[in-house]
Design goal:
Blueprint: H1 18-31, H2 35-49
Amino acid sequence: MEPKRGPAKEPLNTRILVNTSKRLNWFTSKHGYAVTQVVDVALQEFLDRNNVPDVDANGEITE
């Protein structure tokens, strides 16, 4: 049986404030989410709110 595969992902390394890290760890431990899930949703919401164009079926930014 083939393992389930989700959407393609790529690494993102960054540094965040200690307070933000503590809040993120609290949230993920209380609600059962992975840090990756929370960061992805937060970035999507931020980009949408700032009218950043979406990516098309070819992986290109649509304007």
